[in-house]
């Protein structure tokens, strides 16, 4: 039985998603369709925020995260490595451990040093890291949702640019936007005061969350009906 433990790492979650969903996704979904599914559940999650329904928001952001993870695997991106290189316990733009981008007038992105000994080991520790860098009290849940939508748009643009011209520079942008997007997912769950790893562990405690098989055997039409 495949499952994701609540003390698991981002790498372990990516491995879990690969084990359960790689085969059916390879057979049934092109990259653009996987991107569309991330968008579908992000939109439903934001709708949950607008409706004041945090449970609906959480469920759909979890589903969007599984599609996002599958998409990154399809592109051979190690999500945890990309995230750590972009956010080495510092804001990726101002370079401070507690972001001061709004307070400072920064002419451009500062170079940050990656100190490997500071690297979080579990998904929960990464969430705590982002809580320090971007304190949830500094913005509302609605603003966090808008930020996530913005970063999803930038990730989509990067993927479409790469698929159009296949330039290495565009793929490097995908890796950066992959990290930026996940940082906003952590931001959403910090604003919800919810442990992302625990929620994933509850939803993925027995293979696929819907059919409970590994590899997933969900019918294609069933996947399209998830709401």
Strand content: under 5%
Q: What's the shape?
A: globular
Order of helices and strands: HHHHHHHHH
Oligomer: single chain
User: Alpha-carbon distance between the termini?
Assistant: 26 Å
Structural class of the secondary elements? mainly alpha
Low-confidence stretches: none
Helix content: 55-70%
Task: Set out the fold topology.
Blueprint (H helix, E strand, L loop, with lengths): L9 H19 L2 H20 L3 H21 L4 H8 L36 H11 L7 H25 L2 H24 L4 H8 L16 H6 L2
Helix pairs in contact: 1-3, 2-3, 2-6, 3-7, 4-7, 5-7, 6-7
Summarize the structure in words.
The protein has 227 residues and is mainly alpha-helical. It has one domain (10-103, 121-225). Helix content is 63%, strand content 0%. It has helices at 10-28, 31-50, 54-74, 79-86, 123-133, 141-165, 168-191, 196-203, 220-225. α2 packs antiparallel against α3 (54-74), α3 packs antiparallel against α7 and α6 runs antiparallel to α7 (168-191). The protein is globular, with a radius of gyration of 17 Å.
How is this structure best summarized?
By secondary structure, the chain is mostly helical. It has helices at residues 10-28, 31-50, 54-74, 79-86, 123-133, 141-165, 168-191, 196-203, 220-225. The chain has one domain (10-103, 121-225).
Main attributes of the structure:
mainly alpha; globular; 227 residues
